[in-house]
Amino acid sequence: MAHWERDVQSLLRPSERLLLTLEGSYLQHDLEGDSETSLPISFGDTSLGSSSEETRVILAIVGHVDDAMGESGSVFLYTEVDAASKADHDYPLFLQHTFAIHTEFFLDISQLASPPHAHHLLGGSLEAMHLPPPHDTRFCVQLAEGKTIYTIVTNDMERLSSVASACRRLRDLASKISNNAEFHQWLEPYSLHPSSWLSVNPPRDLRHACQPVHSSLSLGYAGQPVNDTADYVVIRDDWLWSRSLSLATAQNASEKTQLRIRVGTFNVNGKLPTQDLSTWLGSVPPSSGTNHHEQKHSIPPLMEPSSHSLSDKGTGMEEGQASAPEADMLVVAFQEVDLSTEAFFNFTGSAREDAWTVAILAALGDKAKLYEKLVSKQLVGILLIILVKRDLQSRFTGITDSSVGAGFMGIMGNKGAVAVRVNYQPNPTSSSPSPLPIAFTFVNSHLAAFDDHIEHRNFDFHDITRRLEFGPCTEYVWAPRTKHREAEPRKLDIYSSDVLLWLVNLNYRLNLPDADVRHLLSSTPTSQGIHTLLQFDELKGCIRHSKAFAGFDEHSITFIPTYRFAANTESDAAGHDIKRKPAWTDRVLHKSSPFVPVSQRSYDAHPWITMSDHRPVSAEFLVDIPCIDSMALDLAANGLYKSFATFDPEDPEDPSGVPLLKLDKSALEFGKVSYSTPVSHSLNIRNAGKVPAAFRFFARDHRSLIHPLWLKIEPMAGFLLPGEEKTLQFTIFVSDTIAAPLNLGTQELFTLLIVHTLFGQDLFLSLDGEYVSTCFGTPLSVLARLPGPIRELGGAENLLPETQVDSSSSREFMKLMGWLTAHNVDAVHDLFIAPGDEALAAQIRESLDTGAELPAPTASQTVDANYARTVAAVLLAFLRSLPESVVPSSLHQQCAEITSRDEALEMLSAFPPESVNVWIPLTAFLHLLALRDHHQAEAPSERPDKRPTTPEDAQPPKPPSRAEILASIFAPVLLRDDIDAASPVSLLGKRQFLLFFMRES
Amino acid sequence: MSKQFQFKLVLLGESAVGKSSLVLRFVKDQFDDYRESTIGAAFLTQTVNLEDGTTVKFEIWDTAGQERYKSLAPMYYRNANCAVVVYDITQSASLEKARNWIRELQRQADPSIVIALCGNKSDLAVRRQVSQEEAQKYAQEEGLMWAETSAKTGDGVADIFTRIAKKLPTMAPPASRSGPGRAGTSAGRTGVDLNKQQRSITSGDQCNC
Ligand SMILES: Nc1nc2c(ncn2[C@@H]2O[C@H](COP(=O)(O)OP(=O)(O)OP(=O)(O)O)[C@@H](O)[C@H]2O)c(=O)[nH]1
Ligand SMILES: [Mg+2]
């Protein structure tokens, strides 16, 4: 019997309880109409023997407890799915009917005498039931609702009498309730197919929910679909989820609530709390925190606030306001709370945790009483504490946690992760009486510190992700998908959530030389240095290339690196330990479902909390809690489910049941398309068939892309019911990196796209644009070989032979350069800094491509400063657009190492001629500008210092000279940075190289 | 148990010669006077039962004949076991196009491919521009099967497909499955796998053992 119970249990929603089951065989089902006349039932020609043909039935009494209305019950009647079709079925049992136990509930029990053909009814109703006990006596149970009557035969008398008494009890309960309809509302989802109970499924895997569906499909090519069956299911299910969610959400759009979550991460280096943590935890707004040291800090700050210029600068976020809004939830992550040997062996108790909890509460001050600790989890040095507002505490349910060790000595857990998963139950409203819970997962991880190989650190991430598991989670329905799979609650991974917040302490570095890092951090404004440095951040690189933390979002960082600060060692101008290259080791990343929008309101470091070698980092999130009613979601899903459930694309019963999609155009003409200017066109795809259809775009073969790089298609896959239509958007965008072959006419804006109908035909779509060539995005070596303006080239075959280019240079560059040197523009102090006039810039660009004169300056005689700025801006944009850096990247390292002007001049002989022809006039012009320095009275330093940021000479921060400013603008353009390089070239070295040409010898 | 084979067949030829019409006649025994030109590649299947009890299932790719889609044709004839190259007997230019297709197939397609040259629209014999002798001679030289058909009346249609079916099993091993991927394992997803997610291939892979 037990296995029936388990099967039945697996087909119930978590809100229901299985009270009893009874096994029997299915006798008869009288439908409305003649049921009256067929009572009492004739068993005359029905075999009641245990023949293999008879269908077994399970009668289950199911209870439901409602806060307002108390307990109610129902009889569920299941039939066994017969062996033949079992393989095809998702569920072992089929729900035939549910009978609400209300006052009209009818159950009749009678005895069947053996032999089966001679029968008499005991005429018993529910009340008058006294059964004689003979052993193989069989009983006949009749259930009726309206005119629907089921008859079941069983010989399990014992259970039958329990069933009868349970029914009697539940009916008595029902008789005390006036509103029967509402009393049994919980039965509604059981009229649906269990597959459409989306509300009791775990949330969709965030990796799929956040990505366009086509990225989850099999590889397939024109004429060779690899796996339409699986792809069809993926596309359809994606459609079902998002369509159901939006149907269920839209109805309650105005009822959204928000949850404010404050998170903090802090590597405390084994210390116990000695400082006030209130700014970090947000109970004191950081605007007063900037003056904090003057007021109540027991430990004076290490440095002047000015060196942390960012924390007192408005970052555009709300933290500058006078009183910070209170968080509903505080998620506090610590690393290295315990460095003792005992801790490595997991022998220590909760003393450290207690100390930090007290410190958190102390930091909350008066507000501490508003909060309650919800959960905490520790693994050696890694500690996660979650506090919530006391009045919200009961809304957080299903709390589970997990922890894994990783990395060096991983088993002992000095590195690894702890995680907590919790469901937030939104407030019921009138239109959403049973809102869908929102699942949050919080991870606190400390990744390997000693490993030099970034691959190993990435491995740790993947390993942790795989091994963190929650559960078994009983709040979801775990229906068996096939007969082979157990219907037991399963474990969930971190991605089965709606919101995933990852607080991480990791050893990802800055991929730049130490001196560069310190120099950039001490330059003013610091924000620029930070911006430059972040491009070389290893974690950002890993996210960019999907090597670790793929698809996670991180708010922009405006604080200086949070590691390493040491009290007793020498530090640089920014306060970082000179022995350890500074890095952003403490980070907050997040990922959330499109239906639960999360916005980050702050991301800060807290320099006045100086007790550790790390600085704590905080972030605040506002989570829009959608109001999705569970019942509405399931009903919506069921409606959609019915629209395709009967159709089996592999085996259409009706031969006309072949999926048929039509495009309303077979060609898209884009007309003129210019460089760096997006142009969009759209068309409609319509389901012209009689059955649901899915589509996706295909590549021609395994060597080809689905579409050229200059094209974007949105969406790339979709699902359409018969008659439905969807708009596909096509956008052409020619960026710097792909413009060159188009500019030369070796490639055209033409492509044939293949739209594959799953289980059906491929549709072709031709797409055509007329590209307007430009010098932008074209290599210098090619521009030097142009016989005239690029628009008049008419094909790469018309380029001048390579031997002729030695003396020539880009005509376009010379035109801009010529104008700048011919006019007295050095007085325009923000040349190359201010953007200029965009409309004028467009005219100038056009004149470069057509060979026309530069447009006449507006004020004819005097040089208009704005005109000069615009020409300068176009020149800079031109240099930036070159597909290859002016100085070939193979020479960058050598250039950066040069220490004298003579060596620098010698270096020019290694440059390609077209680069020399740009380099010399440009640096000569920059030299002229540098002579006219607006910031410094004296001429720039003759002997430039290659390492200006050693602690000794860093003291009074001088404003940078004009030469330095221009060098910091042009060096990354002329010697373009490779942010993904394995061994980075010093940015300072590159600037220095440029400065040799800009300064007087 | 009788032998079962499955083959990939591709139709090639100039636009409007009647490729789609031939397939429609063969698969559904229907004819349309006004057919839209194919912009894509349609996939259909049809089974032929031979006298010896062998069944041959054709997975048919009907391609677009318009010149602008020519570059996509190789995607559909690669791995094909047989090709039906169609011309229109009332358009001599269409035979020229057919010759080009045949040359391309001989160069690029699977060397064991069975090629049938098919002169369609035989019901329009009064407007004939391509003589039977000319086409037949060419087919003999190149070692191709040849027939005239009418998708409109149905003349010769079943016949040519049956001849191909007869020729195939004796000389080529059964094709590996190449039709729209109904095979393979599916990635089960939490939540909503509503229908069966996978079905193992049955008929297709039953081999000639
Ligand atoms: N009289 C006659 N007309 C035919 C025959 N076969 C096709 N047609 C007509 O010829 C026209 C073109 O036929 P399709 O089958 O669309 O030609 P297709 O080769 O598929 O053309 P594309 O799809 O453009 O490559 C249609 O109007 C058909 O009705 C035939 O045997 N006799
Ligand atoms: Mg056609």
Automatic annotation (TrEMBL), chain A:
Compartments where found: Cytoplasmic vesicle, Phagosome membrane; Early endosome membrane
Gene Ontology molecular function: phosphatidylinositol-4,5-bisphosphate 5-phosphatase activity
GO biological process: phosphatidylinositol dephosphorylation; signal transduction
Compositionally biased spans, kind Basic and acidic residues: 936-950
Superkingdom to which the source organism belongs: Eukaryota
GO terms for cellular component: early endosome membrane
Region feature (Disordered): 283-322, 936-961
Annotated PROSITE patterns: RHOGAP
Calcium listed as a keyword: no
Key words of the record: Cytoplasmic vesicle, Endosome
Sequence ranges assigned to domain Rho-GAP in this UniProt record: 803-1001
Gene3D superfamilies: Endonuclease/exonuclease/phosphatase, Immunoglobulins, Rho GTPase activation protein
Name of this chain's protein: DNase I-like protein
Organism the protein comes from: Russula ochroleuca
Lineage of producing organism: Eukaryota, Fungi, Dikarya, Basidiomycota, Agaricomycotina
From TrEMBL, chain B:
Keyword flag Chaperone: no
Record Pfam families: Ras
Biological processes annotated in GO: protein transport; vesicle organization; vesicle-mediated transport
Region (Disordered): 170-209
Protein name: GTP-binding protein RAB5
Domain of life: Eukaryota
Predominant location category: membrane
Annotated localization: Cell membrane
UniProt biased composition (Polar residues): 195-209
Gene3D superfamilies linked: P-loop containing nucleotide triphosphate hydrolases (3.40.50.300)
PANTHER family in alphabetical order: PTHR47978
Membrane topology value: Lipid-anchor
An example molecular function term from Gene Ontology annotations: GTPase activity
Alphabetical UniProt keywords: Cell membrane, GTP-binding, Lipoprotein, Membrane, Nucleotide-binding, Prenylation, Protein transport, Transport
Keyword Cell membrane attributed: yes
GO cellular component, one term: plasma membrane
